[in-house]
Amino acid sequence: MNRPLLFLASPALAVLLAGCSTPVPPALPDPLQPKSFVGPAKAQGQVWPEALWWQGFGDPQLTALESEAEQGNRDIAMAAARVIQAEAQATIQRSALFPQIDGQADYQNGGCKGQGCQQFPGRQSFGVSINASYELDFWGEARSNLRAAQEALKSTRFAAQSVALTVSANVASQYLTVLAIRRRIAIAGENITAITAILDVIKLRVQAGSASHLDLAREEAQLQSVQAQLPGLETQEKQALYTLAVLLGRPPEAFGLAGGDLEKVAAPAVEPGLPSELLARRPDIAQAEANLASVHANLDAARAAFLPQISLTASGGFFNTAIGTLLQGSSFGYGYGAQLLQSIFDGGRLAGQKDLSEARQQEFIAAYQSTVLNAYADVEMALVQVANTGQAQDHLRLLIAAANEAFQISELQYRQGTTDLLNVLQSQQTLFSAQDQLVQTELANRQAAVHLYEALGGGWTEDPQDRTQHF
After folding, report:
1. Which one of 258, 260, 316, 341 is least enclosed by Cβ atoms within 10 Å?
2. C-alpha triplet 100, 105, 107: angle, nearest 5°
3. Model's pTM, two decimal places?
4. Which parts of the chain sit beneath pLDDT 70?
5. What is the number of domains present in the chain?
6. pLDDT, position 224
7. Beta bridge partners of 296
8. SS (HEC) of the chain
9. Do 118 and 185 contact (CB within 8 A), yes or no?
């Protein structure tokens, strides 16, 4: 190549390369990636939860509820509709890569009355034409817009996965809540039965003159205290049932559940794996990644908008005053042309669009990093919750065993007249309070397991072809 031609070609090549798409910038530096999770985990557990993780709880009713929620939940339905909208938007952007062809048929008729019509005779005309236009995507602006729409479509799909994961976790959590509240109601009923039995003994002793009315008043006060808790628990049960019904896509009226036992619902152990693997297992992280790729494609399009736009046009058709001879070759006309459009002065519009796209990219880099950091913290908190509530359960079971023995001894001693009622009341309150606390701790433990499965992505895995961030 001679020097003048090389001199002319080099700037053109530089401009052409400037309009090409660029890779998505890496958004997660090494300092933001921990090497391992520090939260305690059971070593015998599987590394990642299965896609149908709720089946590991061993409760057929929970499995049935999860299946029903997949079909009936309205949030999942809305997320699916948003995916269809994103697919349509990608189709719209893809159309810019193809020629636009329009067909047109015309009919005109005119007339005139009066002496001046000799110079303006009436006539009619017919026409059929086809017009075509095509804008060359020489600098990649249309392709960048299409890539942005495709990444937005991926983001919407990942968002739908996040919604489905959240719904499944909420269904499990509310179901466990119902079982726990029902167990607490049953414990309150057992407490009332025990108090009533002691109350009968006190009444007999008061009649015999061996006990005071103070003991009777104390035990009746204890009975009313427990009975006062029942309406609140029943309200909580209804609230949990109604929430669960909405999650399933059912009306709350007449919704109910068969009996279940919280103690028999045991979550299998899972390990958190490596933090770097979590980046490909949480749909919200994949969504943030796709959002970043989409705004980066918009930035490429904003850069390409500075370059000249080249359009090709063509048209052809038949025109005649008689429809019978419309398609004769003598009435055929055509035209074609090309257009080069380059903005010279726009008051800073293109520069502002580019600056806006760059700022949005910085925003979404920070949003991606924030999503990743929150995901790490989510897993760590879930690990701590599972471990600590598990330890609390063990201590409470030992407490209940000791409190039950103390209550039985104090009750026997009171019947024999060797101790006063205060010892019975104290041991009774300790026992039933520990039983109620154990149920709440078991619920917290099961819900922490649900939270852990959700934090680990619920068995979802991003397709490697969808990734734009490599780690």
Report:
1. 258
2. 150
3. 0.86
4. 1-20, 110-123, 318-330, 471
5. 1
6. 94
7. none
8. CCHHHHHHHHHHHHHHHHCCCCCCCCCCCHHHCCCCCCCCCCCCCECCCCCCHHHHHCCHHHHHHHHHHHHHCHHHHHHHHHHHHHHHHHHHHHHHHCCEEEEEEEEEECCCCCHHHHHCCCCEEEEEEEEEEEEECCCCHHHHHHHHHHHHHHHHHHHHHHHHHHHHHHHHHHHHHHHHHHHHHHHHHHHHHHHHHHHHHHHHHHHHCCCCHHHHHHHHHHHHHHHHHHHHHHHHHHHHHHHHHHHHCCCCCCCCCCCCCHHHCCCCCECCCCHHHHCCCCHHHHHHHHHHHHHHHHHHHHHHCCCCEEEEEEEEEEEECCHHHCCCHHHEEEEEEEEEECCCCCCCHHHHHHHHHHHHHHHHHHHHHHHHHHHHHHHHHHHHHHHHHHHHHHHHHHHHHHHHHHHHHHHHHHHHCCCCHHHHHHHHHHHHHHHHHHHHHHHHHHHHHHHHHHHCCCCCCCCHHHCCCCC
9. no
379 within 8 A of 455, measured Cβ to Cβ: yes
Q: What is the pLDDT of residue 13?
A: 42
Taking Cα atoms as reference points, which of 176, 165, 175, 171 lies closest to residue 458? 165
Q: What is the CATH number of the domain that holds 262?
A: 1.20.1600.10
For residue 225, report the phi and psi dihedrals to the nearest 5 degrees. Answer: -65, -45
**Cβ 315 vs Cβ 394: under 8 Å:** no
**Lookup: tokens for 451:** 């939270």
Residue 271 C-alpha from the chain's centroid:
23
- Residue 165 tokens, joined: 């994961």
pLDDT score at 119: 58
- Return the residue matching tokens 């159309």: 95
Residue 2 lies in a domain: no
Note whether residue 126 is domain-resident.
no
pLDDT of amino acid 121 = 53
Contact 273, 47 (CB under 8 A): yes
444 found inside a domain: yes
Determine if residue 338 is left, alpha or beta; phi over 0 gives left, psi from -120 to 50 gives alpha, anything else beta: beta
Burial of 384 (0-12, 13-18, 19+ CB in 10 A): middle
Nearest partner of 419 among 406, 430, 432, judged by Cα: 406
Which pLDDT score is estimated for 4? 43
Domain holding 191, by residue range, is 25-100+140-307+349-466
Considering the domain boundaries, does residue 318 fall inside one? no
Residue-level pLDDT at 101: 92
